[in-house]
Amino acid sequence: MFRPTLPAAFDTLLRAIGAGADGHVVFSRNGTPLLLLPADRRVAAATAETYRPQSRKAKAAAAALRALCRTGLHTALLPRLAGASDRTGALLCNPCHGVRVVAVRPGTGGVLEVVKAARAADGAPLERERKALERFAGRPGVPAAGPLVRAADAVSFATPLLGIAAGAAGHAELLPLWATGPEEPAEENGLVAELRPLLGEAHRRALRGATVRRALVHGDFAPWNWRADEAGRPVCIDWEWARDDGFAGFDAAYWAVQTELLVRKTPPARLSAAVERNLRDLPRAARESVAGCGLGLETLVALVAAYRQRKGMT
Fold first, then answer.
1. pLDDT for 220-267, tens place per residue?
2. Which of 42, 69, 162, 230 is deepest in the core (most CB within 10 A)?
């Protein structure tokens, strides 16, 4: 039987936050450990929920895994690491982005919580996210977060466990609530100014004289980062790229572009036309956010493409 091996750096990080890897069963992707699942069905199912794949094949595998966890069959059908079972589950993040994990464990009173942790050398994105959550605390769609903890060459913070996404309509309704200021010249907007050097001359010309409305931008506003709180209200996770000098319409356009490129596999040459079709299917709040942003669709798509380039997604 296949016997999984956990990379030593991940094992060390898990132990640093009090979540030893011993005894977990392992769900692997292409032979690489991805999820560590404890025998506890509730924790295992919640851990499996942290894996939000994009392709149809991976979504089907994730759904089957969640069903196994809910019934407890994961302990019999998946390979196991040596040792006694732990009550903490963990998603091992892409090693290309450093040694980071998202762990699920029982918190105070047995209520499940999520702990995001990174090796200190890889902790800058996590620290940025914690600062953003503190800065934007209390705004619609922003989850509560515990303090940043530094211990044993690791940084971490905890948030309440959130449920499955409330749906596109609910998250689209967040977008007008994130507008933070009046209209301003597009070229003076912080996000536009950062991306402008990456645009072609035609799109730079289109910015001249255009206006946008300043807004809080999540920065990775896509369905795999959507969750819901206990009352069913929409909440977003992964705030490390958030900023309040963006502009209304960017998050909705990013959502449409990411859906086309990563889910529907649309070729870049056909992206603008595909995004235009996609926008017709989006909830009203998202369509209005794009239509009223003050920039033409092609320029808006070009800004999203420049943003993806700057973030290393292309």
1. 999 999 999 989 999 999 999 999 999 999 999 999 999 898 888 888
2. 69
Q: How many residues would you count in the chain?
A: 314
Encoded tokens for 15? 């132990």
For the chain, give the secondary structure using H, E and C: CCCCCCCHHHHHHHHHCCCCCCCCEEEEECCEEEEEECCCHHHHHHHHHCCCCCCHHHHHHHHHHHHHHHHCCHHHHCCECCCCCCCCEEEECCHHHCCEEEEEEECHHHCEEEEEEEEHHHCHHHHHHHHHHHHCCCCCCCCCCCCCEEECCEEEEEEECCECCCCHHHHHCHHHHCEEEEEEEHHHCHHHHHHHHHCCHHHHHHHCCCEEEEEEECCCCCHHHEEECCCCCEEECCCCCCEEEEECCHHHHHHHHHHHHHHCCCCHHHHHHHHHHHHHHCCHHHHHHHHCCCCCHHHHHHHHHHHHHHCCCC
Tell me the two tokens of residue 191. 């996000």
Side chain identity, residue 93: C
Single pTM value for the model: 0.91
CA 4 to chain centre: 27
